[in-house]
Amino acid sequence: MLDGLKDAACKAGGERALHESSTATQEALRQLGAFYLGIQSTSAQGDPVACFHLDNGARLERLNTLADLSAKGVKQSLGLMVNYLYDLGKVESHHEKFVHGEVAQSRAIASLI
Question: Which of 22, 23, 24, 61 is deepest in the core (most CB within 10 A)?
């Protein structure tokens, strides 16, 4: 389903195809993104940008669909973007979690996994 959407989005210039995607498709994209960033980030297959933020003590805060509809954004992530939260009082504990294979994440992200 998502491969077809990605192909259609890339061919159609991205924005129109993604805007026309169903709510269920966008929710599936959020769930896949939450799994990838919340589970895979601690492994060698994790996203390098996510690893940078999470290793520096950020918390995975929110996933936004239809956030980057540029050609590059559609090609790389189907327009999905992530927000990280740096809570200065928790940066060290979040870093320690990451080093031990756990990703600090908001309840909203945890509910998607």
Answer: 61
